[in-house]
Amino acid sequence: MRRKILVVDDCIDSRNLLERLLNKSGYKDIILAQSADETFDILKKQGNEIDLILLDVIMPGMDGIEVCNQIKELEAVKDIPIIMVTGLSNVKVLEQAFIAGASDYVTKPFHSIELNARIASVLRLKDEMDKRIQREAELVIANEKLHQLNEVLEQLSSLDGLTGIPNRRRFNSYIELEWKRAGRQKSNLSLILLDIDKFKLYNDTYGHLEGDECLKKVAKVLQSTVNRATDLVARYGGEEFAVVLPDTDLDGAIHIAETMRRNIENSQIPHASSTVSNVVTISLGVSSFHGCESIQSIETLIDMADKALYEAKNSGRNRVECFDICLLEEV
Ligand code: GH3
Ligand code: MG
């Protein structure tokens, strides 16, 4: 690998000697600077190409320690390793250079074996650091990609991440299918929309994580209440669930809704702050459609269940209401 080394020394003889020694050791790409100003000028123009700086401690104007200090303050070049160059009598000042961030030092007069060993070791360390930084950057990119991919997967998935039951996306496609089938076969299709009572108070009392646990338990109970393979219990929104019941008339759907209400109540999930009961309860709205009827759209069927749910909430909660045509006309 071709290395570019910047040699900073006010003494022309030292500069030339260092250059010769470095050339002899195979470092052919050497830049020479004789002052702090010249050093910063070079770093500004080609700082990103320089692999190592050999920096004399004693220089007129700004000395090597201060130059080292200032280089380490510059974001673009602060990672270039610096080896301080000093006379034997000046070794004491090196403490300041190390505090400033210098990597190592060599003493004048130069010994080529020592010089080479120190340069090689500093460059090796720099290579390791560069590799680590690169790996970390690659890891960040890989993590971002994974995150994006997970989001896509989640969107494509038909299951709700928290409860594991079908999500709203699945609900939408399923009810669409069943709607068409009911129309074709002149059969029944019923829908239950249900919502946990006073769930905000539940979160406020037990915390959001417990709230999530509660949602999981409710989902499980609802799922275990339906019997047919064609029944679909889905998480419709935050604490709202939807149940699609193909080939089920209004009476059958009310029966299932009532069983769900009772099963949730009997699960005895404590809800100390609820104004409805001391356990978790749900309110349910039922709507039903027969293939012969002229309900215009799925949205109407959903709207009907929603109105019934609203009625169940309004008339005290922990109950089942079914859609009555009057509810639709009231709004
Ligand atoms: P109501 O009896 O009228 O339904 O009252 P409520 O408190 O259940 O209704 P409201 O709509 O005021 O509050 C719903 C709460 O459900 C608020 C929201 O923080 C909580 N919620 C929604 N989604 C989640 C969830 O995924 N996890 C948890 N823990 N809470 C959720
Ligand atoms: Mg609620």
TrEMBL record:
UniProt modified residues of type 4-aspartylphosphate: D56
Sequence ranges assigned to domain GGDEF in this UniProt record: 187-325
InterPro entries: CheY-like_superfamily, Diguanylate_Cyclase, GGDEF_dom, Nucleotide_cyclase, Rev_trsase/Diguanyl_cyclase, Sig_transdc_resp-reg_receiver
Pfam families: GGDEF, Response_reg
Domain Response regulatory residues, every copy: 4-123
Keywords: Phosphoprotein
UniProt keyword annotation of Isomerase present: no
Protein's name according to its UniProt entry: PleD family two-component system response regulator
